[in-house]
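Design job #97: recover the sequence.
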């Protein structure tokens, strides 16, 4: 079926009134629109299959309002016990909604049970305390792709089924230049005194050493732990829904499902400019749909992961069957990213109908790994994406962090980019493979870079197919 120009503009996220902004190269845009295929029916069927297989939770129609259990709306009273009591009673009665009503409520970590929908109503805010001791005792968690016994995530669930966080209210994590974020140590936007003691480097190095040496997870415990917890982390869970909430000022990654099956993230708004403020990082999950979300973050907007180095290979679970659809990336280090904690591999990813643009956006579509991470990255599809302003538009980097220092050769197989418009970029491509393992298996169709300032970086690349790829109005070849 022939795609109309108007419908494709909508799919690309360009309103008809916005086309004038591209008028200096209108012929290029028209060419893309007239020749667009968007991957065709096979892509559509694959996406439909993933959506169908991603099961959303259902709940009994009964509400448990936290103020009925003693919570107080004053942002001073600690409502932790009241919230947990409401969750426990709701679970006891077969599940339903635990409701945060209008107001400002202070809480410590929240642990969900099966069949619980934590519902934050509009004009409600949950404020999380920033005292690290409140996030103990330690729980089974993952930090930068390595398992350990660490601080509880702010909202956590372990081996639960049918759970949700919904509502148009706000989750406030309390991350700031005075709380949580200084543990990062040196950072590009450092506005804090860097401590030699309260610094994640020491714990991070020790944890990675334990993982490399095969220390059991139950023994990966630290008396002095400076690894910041993620905001929302369901772990080994099934049928998870995170919908509509605004998530602000996270200590670390915002939404981080790990080893979960059937995860739907829909309509959330992520606003956090701290270090490692990734928006949504599914790790080693199967059947994930990220839909209609807005990311305004200090790090990657979406980063797909599957474990780091030896620990990722020990767990050996890929992240697979992922749909990213109709998302907006306002601010972030990277738009749609795979890696770097990717040792378990990624397959069957479909990203489409997204817009991203920022003077601070470093990379648009990015794969990052190395020969210590390794990872098989296959069946990756991107279509109908508009990038406004970016530094490097398309990045495949086998030399991230440690570079070529290990025996685990990364593999990219069957990566397809269709119908991509980049309005302004420093570089169109940064493609860095190895001489012994070049980048291959990549196809680009109908890709236009309207204004590019500098030459691309292309090292050790082979077997890349370019069809109707233009840079600054000229056909581009590698």
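Job complete. Output follows.
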């Amino acid at each position: 079926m022939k795609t109309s120009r108007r419908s494709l503009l909508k799919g690309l996220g360009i309103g008809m009134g916005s086309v004038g902004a591209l008028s200096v190269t209108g012929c290029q845009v028209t060419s893309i629109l007239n020749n667009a295929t968007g991957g065709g029916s096979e892509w559509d069927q694959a996406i439909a299959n993933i959506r169908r297989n991603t099961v959303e939770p259902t709940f009994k129609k009964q509400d448990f309002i936290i103020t009925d259990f003693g919570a107080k709306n004053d942002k001073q009273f600690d409502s932790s016990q009241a919230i947990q009591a409401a969750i426990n009673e709701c679970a006891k009665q077969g599940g339903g909604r635990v409701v945060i009503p209008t107001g400002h409520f202070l809480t410590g970590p929240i642990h969900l049970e099966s069949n619980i929908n934590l519902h934050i109503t509009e004009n409600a805010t949950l404020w999380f305390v920033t005292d690290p001791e409140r996030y103990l005792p330690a729980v089974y968690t993952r930090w930068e792709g390595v398992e350990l016994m660490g601080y509880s995530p702010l909202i956590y669930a372990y081996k639960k089924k049918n759970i949700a966080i919904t509502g148009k209210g706000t989750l406030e994590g309390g991350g700031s230049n005075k709380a949580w974020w200084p543990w990062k140590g040196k950072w590009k936007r450092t506005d804090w005194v860097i401590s030699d003691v309260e610094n994640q480097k020491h714990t991070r190095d020790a944890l990675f050493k334990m993982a490399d040496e095969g220390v059991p997870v139950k023994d990966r415990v630290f008396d002095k732990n400076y690894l910041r917890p993620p905001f929302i982390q369901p772990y080994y869970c099934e049928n998870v829904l995170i919908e509509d909430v605004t998530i602000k000022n996270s200590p670390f990654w915002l939404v981080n499902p790990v080893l979960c099956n059937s995860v739907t993230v829909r309509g959330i708004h992520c606003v956090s400019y701290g270090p490692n403020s990734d928006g949504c990082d599914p790790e080693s999950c199967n059947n994930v749909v990220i839909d209609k979300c807005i990311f305004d973050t200090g790090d990657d907007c979406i980063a797909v992961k599957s474990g780091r180095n030896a620990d990722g290979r020990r767990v050996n679970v890929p992240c697979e069957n992922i749909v990213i659809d109709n998302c907006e990336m306002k601010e972030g280090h990277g738009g749609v990213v795979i890696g770097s904690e990717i040792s378990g591999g990624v397959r069957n990813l479909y990203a489409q109908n997204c817009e991203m643009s920022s003077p601070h956006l470093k990379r648009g579509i990015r794969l990052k790994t190395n020969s210590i991470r390794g990872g098989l990255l296959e069946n990756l599809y991107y279509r109908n994406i508009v990038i406004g302003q970016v530094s490097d538009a398309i990045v495949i980097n086998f030399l991230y962090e440690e570079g070529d220092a290990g025996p685990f050769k990364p593999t990219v197989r069957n990566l397809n980019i269709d119908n991509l418009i980049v309005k302004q970029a420093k570089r169109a491509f940064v493609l860095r493979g190895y001489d012994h393992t070049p980048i291959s298996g990549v196809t680009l169709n109908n890709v236009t870079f309207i204004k590019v300032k500098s030459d691309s970086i292309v090292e050790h690349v082979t077997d890349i197919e370019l069809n109707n790829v233009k840079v600054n109005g000229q056909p581009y070849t590698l």
